[in-house]
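Today's session is about reading a structure prediction critically. Students often jump straight to the picture, but the first step is always the sequence itself: look for stretches that repeat, for charged clusters, for runs of hydrophobic residues. Only then move on to the predicted structure, which in these notes is written as discrete structure tokens rather than atom positions. Here is the chain we will use throughout the hour.
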Amino acid sequence: MSGSAADRLARRRVETDRLVESLRRRLAGIIESSAWSTNDDEHDPEGVTVAFERAQVAGLLASAREELRELDDAAARLAAGTYGTCARCGGPVGDERLEALPAARTCVRCAR
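Below is the predicted structure for this chain, in token form.
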């Protein structure tokens, strides 16, 4: 395991925060560029592509924001002394799982 749980959570939060900002800028750019075009999303093949890209980026942004919330919840669990304990069975979540998914609430068995 590389680094402490607090370090791992902090690193992932910084990465996710950067991703949120990048996706937010990308979405704003898509919206701004479509505001200046006359594409008809319904009838113009390019418009469909723009609408799809806008929806895709909006979905990625929502997922990244949800990950930030989960990381904040994990930091709260760390402060409370319950980080790394499965929310379902009470057993350990496991170092490898927490390394891959720092905000994981459940062990691999319970996650299945």
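Discussion point for the tutorial: The chain has one domain: 5-84.
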